[in-house]
Here is the input.
Amino acid sequence: MYRYETHCHTKYTSACSQLDAETLVSLYLKNGYDGIIVTDHFLNGNTTVDLSKSWEAQIDEFFIGYERVRQEGEKRGLKVFFGFEYSYLGTDFLVYGLDREFLYAHPGLLEPGVRAFLSLAREKGALCVQAHPYREADYIDHIRLYPSDVDGVETINAGRNERCNRLADILADEYSLAKTGGSDLHVSRQKMLAGIETEFPLACIADFIAAVKKGEAKPFAVQNIF
Here is the structure.
């Protein structure tokens, strides 16, 4: 089986992460992963990006984390793909399959609202997954669910408790949504890791999207080897 991380953050682009490129790549290689998808917080999330810059400059700055991890992964034999985490009032969505050119071309991307964004992203071929849908925190005034606006649900999040993941699994079953797993990694010494397993290697983000949509990617969790 081939293992892939679907949800992790870098310190270069996510203000809440402590992870540099060398640490990320070393940790996932040590834990037997074949690849990772860097999903830093987008411009409407906990980002380090200077939002006073032009839209194109913001996008370039946003890609710094992914690019540094990709370069490190190329040197050391770890596949690194691009995604991002789109946020709305503490409700988060993992978005896979949109590239730099798409983001350049949509300077009003944050304005239409979450449902309009998800609709546009999926129309353009992106895979949209609601992350940790039953997460509770003091900055989240209530749980929001969007099962009719996404392709899948993160049913295993290594940073959440068993109830949160169990409810997410029920939600996916009830709405016939794809299931994914992810570590939601911000620090190297997190107790558990997660991701998806496939019976074949993934060469690009399109392979990941196809595997999830076809039910060929299975979520898993494993204890982290520091």
Observations:
- The longest helix spans residues 64-76.
